Amino acid sequence: MEHEAVLTSEDASKTRGFSLKQGIKALLFTCNNEWVVVDVPADQKVNQKKVAEILNWSKGKIRMATAEEVEEKTGCMIGAVPPFGHKEKIKILVDEMIFDNDVSAFNIGLRTHSVNVKTELVKKVFDSLGVIWGDFVR
After folding, report:
1. What pLDDT digit, counting tens, does each position of 38-64 carry?
2. Mean pLDDT of 17-31
3. Which runs of E-coded beta strand occur in 75-131?
4. Is the pLDDT of residue 76 over 90?
5. Which of 5-14, 75-84, 106-115, 123-132 has the lowest mean pLDDT?
6. How many Cβ atoms from other residues are within 10 Å of residue 52's Cβ?
7. Model-level pTM?
8. What is the domain-level CATH number for residue 107?
């Protein structure tokens, strides 16, 4: 679907007409020049300590990527990063709470374009990519 430009998950939810928890938020983190995209329901916040622990990263050194780093690594601006299909091959962690929804919504590389898709189909894509499943929210 094409819509007005959105930056936040809240804006995207209102624009799409879906509940906030149906959105998949994709956030890029780094530690010591390693990278990971963490996909969580849009109504949740990523627990960086859990992410660091699963990846054996320093809990004190993990950080969110800057806007410039996000664009360089994913090929997308902040607010437009999809849960998969990035410019560079990046490890992906997926919070299992996304399966609380039958349908998921997310941006597809542009702040003005989203897709609504059955969550079971998203899971097939994730499985084909070898993502790491778990509990990554606060």
Report:
1. 999 999 999 999 999 999 999 999 999
2. 94
3. 91-95, 103-110, 113-118
4. yes
5. 5-14
6. 18
7. 0.94
8. 3.90.960.10
Residue 19 has, within 13 A of its CA and on its CB side, a CA count of 10
Average pLDDT, the chain: 95
Residue 57 carries which side chain, given as an amino acid letter?
A: W
Q: What is the pLDDT of residue 118?
A: 97
Which residues constitute the domain of residue 98? Answer: 9-134
Residue 64: inside a domain? yes
User: Which DSSP state fits 32?
Assistant: T
| Assigned domain for 1 exists | no
Structural domain includes residue 50? yes
The CA–CA distances, whole Å, from 50 to 73, 80, 85 equal 22, 24, 24
- 36 within 8 A of 65, measured Cβ to Cβ: no
H/E stretch holding 25 reads strand 24-31
Cβ atoms of 32 and 60 closer than 8 Å? no
Helix and strand numbers, DSSP H then E, in the chain: 4, 7
- Residues 120 and 110: their CA atoms lie apart, in Å, by 23
Structure confidence at residue 57 (pLDDT)? 98
